[in-house]
Design a protein that fits this description.
It contains nine helices and seven strands; from the N terminus they run H-H-H-H-H-H-H-H-H-E-E-E-E-E-E-E. The strands form two sheets. The chain has a five-stranded antiparallel beta sheet.
């Protein structure tokens, strides 16, 4: 009894100490713990930073690395995915995500995708919503300069070049606006989730007594298409669908 009480007090004391520190201090403590191989402490510090309301791609990446070292592949994949949601061009996070996915039990072959859809998805994924907004601003300023050049320049050849540049930039502006809108929608959708339990049984309907359809293991990615009470209706990459309890998957 005394030992149990001491453990509870130790946990409460640790939580109090962590909460008294700034996010920057917690991040530094987490990095120091990671360097000395104390991955559990590192993950605790990174989670405390998140609990304070601070988030960043680097923070999720570091937490993913700590979870990977702890052999918690579901949590590692979840945090790498969150890092990429915030910063799609984060190469290290993508590489580590691929490595973590290679260690999961489920290897689901995705359905064939029309090449234009795949190309569009790849283009939108080049930049974060903020990155695409900056592109829109840069193109808009360039378009303004080209239009101004057309009206202010006197030489026919120079005005012609300005006109062609303005037409090309106008098309590029429309494309970048579309990418910015699609990127923001993807960022805010939160329809993807990661299986965080060692094994889950996907059901044919949102009832425990319903027919078992298939099994998923920790780290598998699913798309949530509907929520009904405490159940998610999910689709996996190969097109299979079913229902699972909400506490068996964590939204990215």
């Amino acid at each position: 009894m005394m030992k149990k009480t001491f453990c509870i007090l130790l946990v409460l004391l640790s939580a109090t100490v962590l909460s008294a520190q700034t996010p920057r201090q917690l991040m530094d403590r987490g990095n120091e713990a990671y360097k000395r191989g104390d991955f559990g402490k590192a993950a605790e510090c990174y989670n405390a930073v998140l609990a304070s309301g601070v988030e960043s791609a680097a923070l999720y990446y570091n937490l993913g690395n700590a979870c990977y070292r702890l052999d918690e592949m579901g949590a590692a994949i979840l945090n790498y995915e969150r890092a990429l949601r915030m910063e799609p061009g984060f190469r290290d996070a993508r590489q580590n995500l691929e490595l973590a996915n290679s260690k999961t039990e489920d290897h689901i072959a995705p359905l064939p995708e029309f090449f234009l859809s795949a190309w569009g998805r790849a283009v939108v994924g080049w930049l974060s919503p903020r990155g695409w907004r900056l592109v829109v601003l840069a193109v808009l300023l360039s378009l303004g300069a080209a239009v101004a050049g057309f009206f202010l320049l006197r030489a026919y050849a120079a005005r012609k070049r300005s006109l062609f540049a303005a037409a090309a930039l106008a098309a590029l502006l429309l494309l970048s606006i579309g990418c910015a809108i699609a990127s923001s929608a993807r960022h805010n959708r939160h329809s993807s989730a990661i299986i965080t339990q060692p094994m889950v049984v996907v059901k044919s309907s949102p009832e425990v007594s319903s027919i078992d359809k298939f099994i998923l293991h920790e780290g598998s990615k699913v798309e949530i298409t509907e929520t009904l009470g405490n159940w998610y209706r999910i689709t996996i990459a190969d097109g299979n669908k079913g229902w699972l309890p909400v506490d068996e998957a964590t939204v990215i």
